[in-house]
Structures are given as C-alpha cells and as structure tokens.
Give the backbone structure.
Amino acid sequence: MRENMVRSIWARGDAVVNGWLSIPSSFSAEVMAHQGFDSLVIDMQHGLVDYQAAVTMLQAISTTPVVPLVRVPWNDPAHLMKVLDAGAYGVICPMINTRDQAEALVRACRYAPRGVRSFGPTRAHLYGGDDYAERANDEILVMPMIETVEALENLDEILATPGVDAAYVGPADLSLSMGKEPRVDHTDPQLVEVQRTIVAACQRHGVVAAIHAGTAEYALKMIEDGYRLVTVGSDSHLLALGAAARVAAVRTGLPGVRSQVGD
C-alpha cells in the first residue's frame, strides 16, 4: 500500500504543513498540490465541494506525493466510507463531543474486526495499491475535531478511544462554544490556555495535536506549542490575499504612472 507520509512525518517527530481546499475544482486542487504542502484537506463541511467534485480533486492531488485528506460534513458512516473508498488517506470529522461519538467515527473508518467499514475500495485500491484492504486499517488517519466545551469536558475519554490518531482543533467553533468571537489565531489568554491543554492531553494519550492557523507566524507558534499538523491556508483565502495584494500594488503605483503620462 502507498505509504501515508503524514504518519511518516509524525514518526520522525516533525510537523505536517497542511493546506485546505474549499473551491470545488480539480485544477485549483492540482495547483495547491504543487506548492509544497505535506497534505491537503478537501473540505466537504464548510467548503463548496460535493462528492463528485471531491473525487476529481483527489485524482488531481494524486499527481503529486501530497497526502489527500477529507473533512466530512458530519459523523455519518455513509460520508466517511464513501470518501475513503474514493481514496482519501484520512478523515477529519467535525463536532466530536463524546467517547461514543469518537468510537462510532473510528468504527466507520476501520474494516472488521476493528470496525464496520464496508468493503469496496473502488478507487482507493487504485491509489493505495493492491494490498489496500490488508493495510488500510493501519494507514488511514482518523481525526475527530475538538471544537466545543462539551468536547473539552470529555477530552481524555475522546483521546483514549482506540483508533483515534489525531485531534484537530477547530478554533472558531471552540471560540463560539466558549462565548467568544469566532476566529483563528487566538491571543485571548483563556483560549490560548485551552489550546495548550489540548496539546498536553494529546501527548498523554499518544495522539497528535492538529490545528487551523490563519498565518504562517501563528502556525509556527503552534508548532512550538506542540502541534504536529498545522493548516497554513486555504485555496480561497490565498487566492483572495494574492489578488488583493496585486491590485493594491497597481493602485498604489497609479499616481506615479499618471504623473509621468501627464508629463
């Protein structure tokens, strides 16, 4: 089976640089896949991506060594099994608040006897290899999202769930749940402390801590704090930033050009 390089990076103690895909386009996914990310997450929860678009994006990513991951819309076995059969090498699942929910997530992603995933890796065996069925349980990543006060209260139980590989912090929903403004790159002392508490809990349970970051500077700070997968930007956000910077540069230079033309 094709090696899951995210696991390999973690095994040597390094951090994964992750990107986010919310535009339903195989071409934009392919462009992002050629920019040096270790992994890319296709966002089927808040992104504009449906299943058929996700399949074409997985195909585009597979032209590179980048590891393809998917954030599913919900903790639904139908969504989970279908994206895995399409070739996702890991899933991120939103709003996991209890051990029971974490166990259900793991079961849907693992073949028997470790789970209830139905057999039919239609595209997955093309991407992963002929021995996909024998090795998928050990290669596929399962990442519940920690993004509510309830999840924090049940954090140790969630992280102790066999088969949970990483916990992905959703800073915006976590902020909302704590009665604060939804945002990433927190400087609020209470939220910063919560993020550190999650790292410490992950380390106790041998689980990787992952988080969404809005800037490269904050991503580096999170790595210093112990996070081992950091999302450093989305296709839509990076497109907007790049376009805005280019337009602003031209507009800033316009007065000088007009002056020369006038002369």
Observations:
- The chain has 13 helices and eight strands.
